[in-house]
Amino acid sequence: MRRPVFRRRSGRALRVTALTALTALLGSATAGPAIADPAAGRSAWSAKVRSLVSAMTLDEKLTFVSGTSDPKSLGEAGYIPGVKRLGIPELRLTDGPAGVRVTAHATAMPAPVALASSFDEGLARAYGRVIGRDGRALGQDVLLAPMVNTIRVPYAGRNFETFSEDPLVSSRTVAAEVGGIQSQGLIATVKHYAENNQETDRGVFGPAVNVNVDEQTLHEIELPGFNAAIEAGAGAVMCSYNKVNGSYACENEQLLKSILKEQWGFRGWVMSDWGATHSPEAIAKGLDQEMPGDAYGPIFTAYFKEPLRTALQKGEIPTSALDQAVARILGQMERFGLLKKQSRPSRDAAGGARVAQTVAESGAVLLRNQHGALPLTGGAAKSIAVVGPTARTPLIGGGGSARVIPESAKAPLDAIKARAGSGARVDYSVGENLDGVLVPASALSPATPIDRTGGDKVPAGQSFSYSGTLTVPETGDYRLDLQTSGGSGTVTVDGKDVVTAGGFFSGSLIPTTDGLTNAPVTLKLTAGKHTLAVKTTAPADAAQSVRLAWSTPQTVKADIAAAAAAAKKATTAVVFAYDEGTEGSDRSSLSLPGNQNALIAAVAKANPRTVVVLNTGSSVSMPWLDGTAAVLDMYYPGQEGSEATARLLFGDVDPSGKLTQTFPTSEARTPVAGDPRRFPGVNLQEDYSEGIYVGYRWYDKEQVRPLFPFGHGLSYTTFSYHGLSVRPGRNGLEATFTVTNTGRRAGQEVAQLYVGAAPGVSEPQAVRSLAGFQKIALRPGESRRVRIDVSERQLSYWNSTSHRWTVGTGRRALSVGSSSADLRLNTSVYIKR
Ligand code: BGC
To answer: Number of structural domains, the chain?
Structure first.
């Protein structure tokens, strides 16, 4: 085999001895390490695992591959009872990506997208360690995280729960996090394998979308993160709801057998997402465990119980398939010491909180900062108008299975007040009142306000109903808020159910200031009478508070005017803006919800020193951007987010996060715009026809200017770059360059290295792709020589003819800079086979 040769621009060939490794690496992409599946050789499992499998009865094996309900549940998502007779303990499986989701308190970490934005693998490990320890302390054995699906669609509801549009950022973050989680003895489950990149038609309770994706795109964009998690030793994989190239992900032999188990040599087990199993045959196609089995009653069919038994007994499925599945689970239990008597740690709430705060600080992205508006110092810090509902009610996390219940979470307003100190004036104006106001008797007939709070709650197990009319004074948008303390409820207007409260995904993430769950709907109503019905049912074991509130065109105007007036009086206005990213649905627009665009525009008009703090999960449009002084994206910052926000605003800590996804200028200029086959799919068929051009790869190819590019993020100091040199490295290339802190404050920079397209390749090539990065801390005036290693994988593309990674030879551009669009140093190398 000829060795590849790297040449510098000068043309002088550099022969690299270590590049013999290239051959090995490429080989492993198709053949995989020599770890035999039990199908190939029984010796793959330990004597202990083999003896347990042979001692288990059919019934016992069946209970092992399908979940059931936990008699001692702490509210975790999944449970396997174990086999007492054989000393095999129970297995408890808990969500999720931002912390342990049980009914007890756990550390609510910042959203995973914030973690990824820190570009700091040390922090990703620490983040994993916190969740790992919490999980073990809270009686759990398996974590249903991390999520590593690509951010492909800006609208996707779960973008906050995952990492990036870029496979290298996803890979490095997930590998470090998996290491951290598992170092505490909690098994990590990388999810959702694969191409679960949107919520629309994800197929939990309805038909599932089929993702049509070509081989190169699959391998280059979505799979690297999963592969990195497997290489980092993740014990489990969760297959997704959707179909990929015609078959359900949980019975997709290409994904589960050929790629995961054979090519990558994965030795752990594959569990289905909750309700993503579709047949008993899936067990012969690579799915090892069905979740949640019969735990949720008849909601999901339990295929791996009676249907699997019947199929096994009829000989339609070989028993070896069941044995392998059981061995895979037992193999991981043994690896993690779960087959022996376990001692569990106690929670380290204080330690967890410290990491949560550091991640929130390091992952925050300063998107804009005109004329040094931030940090707030001097007069700017002495007179502040704080605006926005999430300033007083912290929005610490997104919705769905990633929600965590922390001991406490401070309001940003309180953190700002405390940090500003007694010498400063901090005024608050809500700007958009999400509590609404009680719908007055004058608008109702019968004329009784719907308010069963206080001493007049609906008794446990009983119902409340109201039926009459609602009269609105003028035509316009009305937000109706059904506010309850648990239980269920509906609001019907003009014969249509417009609000349903009480489901897992219903209701706002932002409770009312008196702690009720708020289920809002905005309706266009014409002036005059509308029929109105409200029906609620209290939970069986608790009385129910019920209230119907609203916002009218007048209250909206008044709230915005009051916020603008407060902003005008202050030196600085800080507006907290939010959206509610959640599992279960995609956003219908990239716009901030409600009247926030009008609110920010009005505040910025009243006070040019307006700072916008985003508590958002993914990219949002910013029609008001030009009028503002600064924008700080905190994402959903976890339980310590308020402290982190205040410290960033006042400059106690320097912002150093970078965007892991591109922010578009408008909805018409995104990789999926104008093509419903790309998103959300047509007739349940979705074509990833943009191919490898996901995120910045699309913006670069189409030469579309984004609002904020991938990798962008400002600091309170400035950095310069010089002296790029590239030479062959141990396993690819080694680039070195100098970064200098040219400002007056200490700060951190994420230096990014991009590699250009390989010439003469028939497969599509990105204009540039991130090939390495490093975060460095520099004191004012300090310079540091930075080394970034570019692995052969980063120089390779997926060759769809030979079905393997292939180094892209020829002259390749290399650029180093502060974002994908702010490239400061450029060179090229000649890569030859
Ligand atoms: C989600 C998973 C989650 C599971 C268990 C599913 O609906 O897609 O991410 O781990 O529920 O809660």
So the answer is: 3
**Cα 84 from Cα 63, distance rounded (Å):** 12
Beta bridge partners of 530: 470
- For ligand 1, is residue 274 a contact (CB within 6 Å)? yes
Structure confidence by residue, pLDDT tens digits, 440-496: 999 999 999 999 999 999 999 999 999 999 999 999 999 999 999 999 999 999 999
451 vs 405: CA distance, rounded Å: 28
Helix (H) or strand (E) holding 476: strand 476-484
Distances (CA, A) of 797 to 26, 456, 794, 800, 803: 11, 66, 8, 9, 10
Phi, psi of 732 (to 5 degrees): 145, -120
Q: Are residues 141 and 62 in the same domain?
A: yes
- Sign of the CA dihedral with 710 first, then 716, 721, and 727 last: negative
Ligand 1: centre distance to CA 66 (Å):
15
How far apart are alpha carbons 746 and 779 in whole angstroms? 4
Domain housing 648: 354-661
Last residue of a domain, one of 640, 661, 682: 661
CATH number at residue 646: 3.40.50.1700
318 shares its domain with 395: no
The reply to whether ligand 1 has any atom less than 6 angstroms from the CB of 208 is no
Find the 690 Cα to ligand 1 centroid distance in Å. 28
Distance (angstroms) between ligand 1 centre and the Cα of 602 equals 40
Same structural domain, 316 and 369? no
User: Phi and psi (nearest 5°) for 522?
Assistant: -105, 125
Quick check: is 493 in a domain? yes
> Which tokens is 583 given?
């599992």
The H or E element spanning position 753 is strand 747-756
Domain limit, last residue, from 335, 364, 397: 335
Q: Are residues 323 and 362 in the same domain?
A: no
Q: Based on the fold, state whether residues 324 and 376 are members of the same structural domain.
A: no
Shared-domain flag, residues 490 and 557: yes
**Ligand 1 pocket: which of 159, 201, 273, 582 to mutate (most atoms <8 Å of CB)?**
273
pLDDT tens string 61-100: 999 999 999 999 999 999 999 999 999 999 999 999 999 9
Label each residue of 75-138 as H, E or C. CCCEEECCEHHHCECCEEEECCCCCCCCCCCCCCCCCHHHHHHCCCHHHHHHHHHHHHHHHHHC
CB 273 less than 6 A from any atom of ligand 1: yes
Q: Are residues 331 and 190 in the same domain?
A: yes
Q: DSSP state, 270? A: E
**CATH code at position 189:** 3.20.20.300
**Length of the chain, in residues:** 833
Examine the domain organization and report whether 296 and 371 are in the same domain.
Answer: no
Domain assignment present for 801: yes
Q: What are 253's two structure tokens? A: 């032999």
Q: Over the stretch 281-340, which tens digit does the pLDDT of each residue have? A: 999 999 999 999 999 988 999 999 999 999 999 999 999 999 999 999 999 999 999 999
In a domain, 552, yes or no: yes
The closest alpha carbon to 574, from 544, 592, 594, 599, belongs to 599
760 in a domain, yes or no? Answer: yes
